[in-house]
Amino acid sequence: KQEVTQIPAALSVPEGENLVLNCSFTDSAIYNLQWFRQDPGKGLTSLLFIQSSQREQTSGRLNASLDKSSGRSTLYIAASQPGDSATYLCAASSGAGSYQLTFGKGTKLSVIP
Amino acid sequence: GAVVSQHPSRVICKSGTSVKIECRSLDFQATTMFWYRQFPKQSLMLMATSNEGSKATYEQGVEKDKFLINHASLTLSTLTVTSAHPEDSSFYICSARFNYGYTFGSGTRLTVV
Hints:
With 113 residues, chain A is mostly beta strands. Chain A has strands at 4-7, 10-14, 19-25, 30-38, 44-51, 56-59, 62-67, 72-77, 86-94, 101-103, 107-112. In chain A, the strands form 2 sheets. In chain A, strands 2, 4, 5, 9, 10 and 11 form a 6-stranded mixed sheet that branches. In chain A, a hairpin with a 6-residue loop joins strand 9 and strand 10 (101-103). In chain B, strands 2, 4, 5, 6, 9, 10 and 11 form a 7-stranded mixed sheet that branches. A 4-stranded antiparallel sheet of chain B has the order 1-3-8-7, with no helix packed on it. Chain B has 113 residues and is an all-beta fold. Classes of the chains: A mainly beta (113), B mainly beta (113). Chain A binds chain B through residues 32, 34, 36, 41-46, 49, 51, 89, 91, 99-106, and chain B through 6, 32, 34, 42-46, 49, 91, 93, 95, 97, 100-107, 109.
């Protein structure tokens, strides 16, 4: 059974700093991995999607990497802004043809102006 | 593209009543939809997988008679919480898979009083 862990649970940084959020998964036979953002009381916004054959994806100030052999993914946020404050969730889909996602508990990010 | 619309966003109901939550794919056909539940400060937990034209597949520990799922068309899946109790109060989110990744509805905050 896939388990996804995110560290740290919470992070507070001053505006402008670069930061890294970590995600680890127990079953390296993942199909894909996706990073989401969730604002309080809201649904999920997809940030980056990495297929198992890829090593990284970039979108604007965000870069996500995937290392299947070590069971790890990182989300790098450059030049953080107060608007980046949210909870970031990592989710892994295991097994070819399996469309189910297993989520981590998230990292709550606060960017201080 | 790949937008999922979820309604209502908030609902308060009396204990013992039933509540229906709708999830629509607006610009694509969703053969499969997923229903998640999220408790405060917890991650998303998959409740069931909804397949168009067939019975939903429920995760272990989820009562199928309490959480009725109907996926009668390629653009609509519904979750009905029957005989709701205060412990059913939670945040419910639907999701659908599209070409690359998953897209989520905005969620429904259910409060049972």
